[in-house]
Amino acid sequence: MTATLPGSPPQHPDDLAHQLEGSGDVADRSFRSLAYVAGGLVLVVLGLITWTMASRSSDALSHMGLDFFTTKRWSPPNRVYGILSFIWGTVYTSVIALTLAVPISLGIALYITQVAPLWLKRSMIYIIDLLAVVPSVVFGLWGVLVLSRHITGFYGWLSSTFDGWPVLGTIFGSNPQGRSFFTAGLILSVMITPIVVSLAREVIETTPQTEKEAALALGATRWEMIRGAIIPHSKGGLVGAVMLGLGRAMGETIAVALVIGSATGQITLNALAPGNSMPAVITAEWGEADTLKKSALIAMAMTLFVMTIVVNMIATTVVNRSMKKSRGGA
Questions:
Q1: Where are the domains of the chain?
Q2: Could you tell me which residue, 191 or 244, shows the higher pLDDT?
Q3: Residue 134 has what pLDDT?
Q4: pLDDT score at 104
Q5: What does the alpha-carbon distance between residue 200 and residue 241 come to, in Å, rounded to a whole number?
Q6: Which of 34, 169, 194, 209 is a Cys-bridge partner for 165, taking CB atoms 3.0 to 4.6 Å apart?
Q7: What pLDDT is attached to residue 284?
Q8: How far is CA 153 from CA 150, 160, 178, 269, 285, in A?
Q9: Rounded Cα–Cα distance for residues 236 and 319 (Å)
Q10: Mind giving me the DSSP string for 209-277?
Q11: Are 13 and 2 in contact (CB under 8 A)?
Q12: DSSP, res 167
């Protein structure tokens, strides 16, 4: 029965429902418009960033042409700017970080979701989330003050052990240095592990319980259930988590600048040699740069920006395809 005020005509239930539906439509339209405005604002800001970097890097790009991307000589006194070695350092340290972090991260995520008791699961999630918010400069200072000083002996052992081996003998080459590609990759692996673990854990938990129970009911062991039910269902999302970690590693600045060694023009597979990366060079040389050098550094930042955007777009595409498959879409 519909309540009415004294002296007012009774209101029909259909009229009340129509009023509520109309107010709901207004709220939905307002929220949709606000979401469109917010999304458009993000695109506008992204476009302004791109336009600013492109316009301010035009001097260096016109001065060097394609040599800016294809040569490794970086000599500001001679007005020569080639960033190929810095691109290599950025990619190489990121690959090292992924190689070290991904197996550990996926193992932690699987242990948390499938094996750990509830009390330990909560503690591990809390610690991992806490590790994710540690400032990067803390990792960098620990790396340069502690890790790089005490890991040289281990690097020497790696170099002597794999000397003469194909591939590994090149990766763990001679004259190992504490501040090197490998140290930078090791620090980055510690930094991206919480990100990959958190994303992988969320993806793994989307596996339907019925699929896991069906595998166990057929006599599968816990590992066979993980391999046959969880990993196939979560594969796309796990790839997306790894690629988002890659984007994080590629964009890291201060921690890498402190531990990579700051060697210019170094393109080598020797992970124990010093090198440099694009974020580290921008951080180290911006303060003393003249007009042309600043333009070159901005062009380097634009290159890193494009690389990071491409990696994140690929990751988003992979995650979206995985979600569609998990919902039964095409």
A1: 58-326
A2: 191
A3: 87
A4: 93
A5: 6
A6: 169
A7: 84
A8: 7, 11, 9, 20, 31
A9: 6
A10: HHHHHHHHHTT--HHHHIIIIIHHHHHHHHHHHHHHHHHHHHH--HHHHHHSB--TT---S-TTS-B--
A11: yes
A12: T
Q: Which two tokens stand for residue 279?
A: 């974020």
What's the pTM? 0.82
| Residues 6+ positions from 151 with CB-CB distance below 8 Å | 178, 183
Structure tokens at 210: 């019925």
Contacts of 38 (CB under 8 A, 6+ apart): none
173: its two tokens: 């080459």
Domain 58-326 has CATH 1.10.290.10: no
**Residue 141's CB: how many other CB atoms inside 10 A?**
15
Lowest mean pLDDT: which of 23-37, 45-59, 149-163, 284-298?
23-37
Residue 187 predicted with pLDDT over 90: yes
Give 65's DSSP letter. T
Q: Note whether 176 and 272 are within 8 A (CB).
A: yes
pLDDT of residue 327: 59
Residues 6+ apart with CB under 8 A from 188: 93, 94, 96, 97, 101, 249, 252, 255, 256
> Which pLDDT score, from 0 to 100, does residue 224 have?
86
DSSP secondary-structure letter at 287?
T
Stretch 197-212: mean pLDDT: 87
